[in-house]
Queue: 2 jobs
Job 1
Amino acid sequence: MTRDEIIKGLTVLDPSELFAEADRVRRECVGDEVHLRGLVEFSNVCGRDCLYCGLRRSNKEIVRYGMDMAGVFETARIACEMGYRSVVLQSGESARYPTEEIAGLVRRIKKDLGLAVTLSLGERSRETYAAWREAGADRYLLRFETSSREIFQRLKPDSSYDERMQCLRSLRELDFQVGSGIMVGLPSQTPEIIADDILLMKDLDLDMIGIGPFIPNPDTPLAGEKGGCLDLTLRTLALIRIVTRNAHIPATTAMGSIDPQGRQKALRCGANVLMPNVTPTQYREHYQLYPGKICIKDRPGDCMLCITGMVASLGRTVAQGPGHSLKRPVSGAV
Ligand code: SAM
Ligand code: SF4
Ligand code: FES
């Protein structure tokens, strides 16, 4: 697809043909199986000050927490018992957990549980990424958030676009399965910028692509902004599916948070992954990137039941394997 064709897809009056094409490409390139990744949000401590995020260090309105590694392992063990074959360990970006502590956790999860492990801990040094890969981490998620340097710099004032891109390159060189993505509906974002985002995703040849609507958080400087709508998010998702073919693309929590049917709709126009929350319930209300986040009061088992029902109601099946990348041969795969 050309840039102009992508822009047309983002702006055309009736997107139903676009959605049908994305669903067809999804079926042809990744099939009817939906992969589940159990999401452990193990710490909301963050040293960065991203303008859009409720975990930003200047936000004094939230209660900070950090699970210990034994607690994270136990959470992963319960997820494994419930049937998950893959976990995502996510947190704010902070040096609170030294490289070796995370490496030890990954080693134990790989050895005792045999799960595929995805990390999403922000920007770290190449040496740290190498140690985590060496410990057995399979995948890393790091959204570039926007391909517009100008918007990036404004919304992530203490980060650098070039350094984030360098992190993505290092992760690829270290043989991680790499995931990245954007938020839709950021202030000043245009269809042209989203088209460039999508072309960048293709260029980076990403194994996984996560997108969601930007949802303004009242405790951040972007409180008064409009935020992203589901329609534009679904158009972006559909175009990403058509352009990147066999990437793994989740129907994200943010989509489900702005519309009760958001994730179901996403699964019908290109998505093939769900990331149910497996974080112990007592921490969930404190990992509020944005208001209205779903599953805050639910327990891991509730989410598993809800998700399997959702997949079945769409006539799809839950995948039984770890759901590795379809883009390239995977080394050290379980
Ligand atoms: N700290 C790590 C990082 O920034 O890469 C990982 C955790 S961070 C909370 C995960 C993602 O949440 C970010 O990449 C961003 O796209 C998303 N996010 C943050 N604030 C958001 C908001 N207000 N609305 C929607 N998504 C948001
Ligand atoms: Fe921290 Fe990530 Fe939120 Fe930025 S998006 S404030 S790095 S948790
Ligand atoms: Fe948590 Fe539906 S996924 S209750």
Job 2
Amino acid sequence: MSDLIEDPISGSASQGAGKKTHPKKVRIEPESLRKFREIHSKAAAGGPPEKIEAQRKKGKLTARERIAYLTDEGSFQELGLLMESRCTDFGIKDKHIKGDGIITGFGTVNGRLAAIFSEDFTQLGGSLGRTHADKIAKLMDMAADARVPVIGILDSGGARIQEGVDSLDGYGEIFLRNTKYSGIVPQISIILGPCAGGAVYSPALTDFVFMVKGISHMFVTGPEVVKAATGEEVDFETLGGSMTHASKSGVCHFVANSEPDCFRQVKELMSFLPQNRFESAPQAETKDAVNRKIALLEKLCEIDARKAYRVNHIIWWLSDDHKFLEVHHDFAKNMVVGFIRLGGQVVGVIANNPAHMAGALDINASDKAARFIRFLNNFNIPILTLVDVPGYWPGVAQEHGGIIRHGAKLLYAYSEATVPKITLVLRKAYGGAYIAMSSKLMGGDINFSLPSAEIAVMGPRGAVEILFSRQIKEAKEEDREPLRAKLAKEYSDKFASPYQTASTGSIDEVIEPAQARARLIGAFRMLAGKRRPGDHAHTGNIPL
Ligand code: HXC
């Protein structure tokens, strides 16, 4: 027997034929509904209570709690909750693990749609079997079609050993999609547990990787294998913890103190990004005056050119409401990159940082900036380059490590980028590094300079040693230093200024320091129509 129940759509149980609203009769078998609810709530509960307890003891949230933290309340729509593994070995199929250790679906993050997957460590250690992988692949295909970002939450023991090569093939289908959709929709990876073996390569192919102190670990081979293979003794944290990957390997872009802190950071990042390569980043309202004066830049003109300072201070002063989201904060600190808004428009900043290695270019700084530039170009985000660079960092390690090959990536990324590119030379811009940092002839749209800029083939001291070596050698010992100083001053006056460069048009304007913010906002507004979003050839964001 079945009962007649109220139609949830019309809100009526009436059967009155001929009435204007034509309410429907809805008959639901109570047994099927009961069964559905039982299956559904069991599936949604995740792994057994002791596994959930173990998860909590490690300071970790469950896969479902993580989605709740990330998405707007009630917005998440799950897909594939009832999918199971088809693997018949080791009794996996008989366990009927609904969802196969992963939650997939769509939800909004601060009102904007995103595709989200969250691995469930309480079910088979979040390991990746074929169904698990198929769910991720299907979600990514749908996200690319819908043109929305993909956010992956990873907490997994890696390839599901019981499923053999099927699980390896599962990674293959994910890597393929990471690459295929690179530069089409933003891809973000949040590592909240182990991420071992080949599993590390999916995050490495995505645009941004987040890790949490003490919780996240990434490595191709774990401490045991390292010890067996090389004899080195190393713990999980040192081998593949968040700070290792944030400061040494450069795999990780953002480090958080806790999972809630991590989700807050992800949301902040998302606020700067467009949904896909066919859109612009969202314009924000700001009360920050366009012509706000920046006294710090005036001060920069007064200080000794060899004095170090953190370029972050200048970025904070320039940006709307002093907000700067730094990317890769702990890696290659001689180069600072991140997102700001100028007059409400999202801009990506690339800046030499004199506080670290005098702001010189090296292998890691080149890789860091080049990949960020390629991300910005893929997603229609204009580029602001702040230059204070004495040159390339010298040394055998840099030469043998391939500064030529890595440095070339920076030249390639800037030359290839077709988004609006504005450069402001703050102080030093010497030699090859001057060219590399979005110089005019390498495609900078508008190149500004402060009066304090020194743009030349090399610094005055170095130039004097080469140009006047004979005179210096022939001078009396006690006269040499004053002679050097005099010649360096003459060289500086003639070459180490922005005026020669401005006279040839390689600097468009030498600007009043206090007006820098107004000039930059005006220039970005002027270039806003330089290309339409998505108008450029698709290049992808290859890991560099
Ligand atoms: C199947 C796995 C698994 C895996 C963990 N589990 N990893 N099941 N395949 N890869 C299961 C465990 O058997 C256990 O099941 C449950 O998940 C929880 O694991 P524990 O070991 O109890 O948890 P913990 O002590 O926290 O240790 C977590 C861990 C450890 C560090 C991740 O499980 C581990 O080292 N796993 C193997 C990691 C690894 O080497 N992965 C690489 C696989 S090869 P029960 O039933 O007890 O709950 C690979 C190649 C891919 O990924 C190449 C792609 C190109």
